[in-house]
Amino acid sequence: MVGAATMAVGKPGVIPAEDEISAWQRDTELVSAATYTQYMADGDTRGFVALERLEAAAEKVMREAREAAVHDVPAVWSVYNMGYVVKTRESLFAIDLVHRRDAEFAPMLDFALVTHNHRDHWRSGFYRAMDGAGKTVVSNFLDNFGVRNWRRDGGYTRARKVFKFKDVEVRTSLVDHNDYLVDFTTAFEVKVGEWTLFHTGDAGLGTEHKLETAWGRPDLWLFFPGCGIDVKKAVGKVAAKRVVFGHLWELGHRHGHKGRLDEPLIRPRLVQAREAGCNDVSLAFWGDRIA
Q1: Residue 263 located in a structural domain
Q2: What are phi and psi of 128, to 5 degrees?
């Protein structure tokens, strides 16, 4: 029984009720990092509600991504952590997709984006599946041999660059993960017609001044308000029309780790984002369609 996996917590402008956040907190606390590692290896949820939700999320997103009809505004799903799948009229792509079943998405996808070289943001099996199929993976550390030839660049870039995929334009820039992993994370600004999305991965401490958008106010910012980033300063600078928090309850990090955005950290950051002027801020839980 998946339970609350389909709670509509990603609706525009809706902050989940206190008991919804608390329920996810309670269920994820029961899963240790070691148990999560075992699940990733063998797929056994061992009866944990959080792992059942995680397993169900991939199936739900794959099914809905196949079936969804998209017109003007792209459809966006949260899979897990900062992993999202985006469908436009002509394209289907992923950002920071990490899941036990992530390689199953590869045949569906046109391309993928990876923000940085941490294993909660990319997995080698998914990369190999994409690269082996000759599909571009844009990152600042992977050399995408499967799509590189004398006429076409691979996806590797550590510069400001614009990639074009069918009806999607992707602009890259570098931001800091923290005060010692400088320019470690690629921020992606995505443009589909007049609609824009901003995904900043683990943009962290002191990087607020590097957050830049060339195509105006993002319609949607997929934002991790952790790693020491000043939420009020960042949200005020980017001025996105809608902010959705991701990277919630990372199961691979031990409880209390600064890389986990748990309940005591989520609530004040929601308030800070509102105080910075964003009236449309919410959370993305696993399997949610958020746009």
Answers
A1: yes
A2: -60, -40
Q: Is 149 helix (H, G, I), strand (E, B) or coil?
A: strand
> Cα dihedral sign for 65, 68, 73, 78?
negative
SS3 content of the chain, % helix, strand, coil (to 5): 30, 20, 50
Q: Which residues of the chain have pLDDT under 50?
A: 1-14
Residue 188 belongs to a domain with what CATH number? 3.60.15.10
Q: Which domain holds residue 38?
A: 4-283
What is the model's pLDDT at position 56? 97
* CA dist list (Å): 33 to 84, 111, 253, 261, 263: 22, 30, 6, 14, 17
100, HSE (Cβ side, Cα atoms, 13 Å): 20
Number of domains making up the chain? 1
DSSP state of 202: T
